[in-house]
Amino acid sequence: MNIGITCYPTYGGSGVVATELGKALAEKGHSVHFISYAMPMRLDGFVDNVIFHEVEISNYPLFDFPLYTLALASKMVEVAKYEKLDIFHCHYAIPHATSAYLAKQMLNQSNIKVITTLHGTDITLVGLEPSFLPVMKFSIEQSDGVTAVSRFLKEKTLTNYNIEKEIEVIPNFVDTAKYKRLRADEVLKHYAPGGEKILTHTSNFRKVKRVQDVILIFAEVLKKVKSKLLLIGDGPERSQCELLCRELGIHEHVKFLGKQLEIVSILSAADLFLMPSQSESFGLSALEAMACEVPVISTSVGGLPELQVHGQTGYIAEIGDIDRMSRYAVDLLANASKHKMFAEAARKRALEFEATKIVAQYESYYEKVLTASAVPT
Description:
Structural class: alpha/beta
Strand content: 15-25%
Order of helices and strands: EHEEHEHEHHEHEHEHEHEHEHEHEHHH
Strand order of the largest sheet: 3-2-1-4-5-6-7
Largest sheet: 7 strands, parallel
Number of helices: 15
CATH topology of the largest domain: Rossmann fold
């Protein structure tokens, strides 16, 4: 198959999944064309059967804002024509699915199919804005196929937009051959030379991730367990988080590592992963931690209960319950045999989301959509 994938290339779950999916499909012999305004972060190095097409946006004095949706649609038309694409696979509905719809109309009698994968905030936050809601609903309904990364997100989509559309649940995935626990002597030597326990968190530091809760949980843990906190990622809340660490007097125990392309060595040194999010449609970073045998303490929101098994792979608490989450953390860190049992269970659970299994589901879904009759317009 010839597959065009459009995603946000920045540091975030939807872009990571889209890129890893494209690379996996290419390894299986499909031709994959990434169409975006920048090279996806995880698309590093040469990959056979993968081509990147950059969307160029013209700056013209008449336009106060860049017309990315239109520029993307035009680029999709160009790539579809010359590369003979079978599918536009759009990750994150706005504006990608909208651009794909326009491209399909411009291609006129083309048999190309549009598949939209919903990842989370495109549905739960962005799409509910009054200015976007009609176009979001239209773009979903006009897609030839729609997938969601969790049952939670599927139900949220159907409810929020009052649509009657079949949505296939295909969860996020992890390459468990790559994401596995390795020796991490250098990381431990650098960040925990005194044998401290290591807690980690990975995110884009948006308000919805509640990174300040991560710090507050760690502050309580630190009172009882010698430990360090490694924060991976960057974003709008980082400065406030750094300030909070200084105010709490724990800044020497917290390391802000910024964006990291390779995190397996860091996760391999970790003892716990914290995810106290306000909203989480799946929890890809938690899955990556679990694959590296790191138990997870998370909130009970969104798709996290579909990933986490409370009392086995980690613990689940309510949003903002700092006290309970810190007590869970101390309980695991202070009990070596229990921690080992949870770590093994986390890895076993992660194997259920092995990349080869999920990529095969996407391939089957592509075939299903390609052989179905076109959506009436």
